[in-house]
Amino acid sequence: MIPKSALLLTLVTLTGGLGLPSQEQALRSIFPRTQVETQTIYLTAKELKEMKELVGAKSKAVHRVHTLSQKGVTVGIAVTDVHRVRSKKSALVIGSSPSGKLTGVRVIGFQEPKEYLPSQKWLAQFQGKELNKELHLKKGVDGITGATLTSRATVLATRRALALQSILKSRETKNNRHDPSRSTP
Hints:
Blueprint: H1 4-15, H2 23-30, E1 35-42, H3 45-55, E2 62-70, E3 73-84, E4 89-96, E5 102-110, H4 120-123, H5 148-178
Antiparallel strand pairs: 1-2, 2-3, 3-4, 4-5
Helix pairs in contact: 3-5
């Protein structure tokens, strides 16, 4: 299990004085007035293979996932994705609806030069996108002029978040089928 203090230290290091929101602020801006339950998710070897197929690139086995709810009903899922852009790291909070549509992307950490930092206006184009062939650079996503690596890394992060949501949904369905207390007579 990843200690919470290690994740926070990583995120604080990534902000680099750029005035970026905290993880909590990012979650609240995507999903206002919600309760947050955070978990560390560990993917199996089979799930990692599925993730690679869905994303089109390798993924880590450990993910930080936030379930957001209002009055006990899940209204969204968010993933904190820390990844390398070129030689330095970036951290995003990526929100999606229960149906698998992106609801928001926020940068919470960025160690690359600030001229490569994606603007909120650019990130807004992800709103409503789903995990499909359009969620690729130069297809359904416009790039950032002069920041191709940032554009590419952000698209891959959104694909990872949506793929993870799909895998977790499959995992939940499978668990419900094997849990006799949840079956109907």
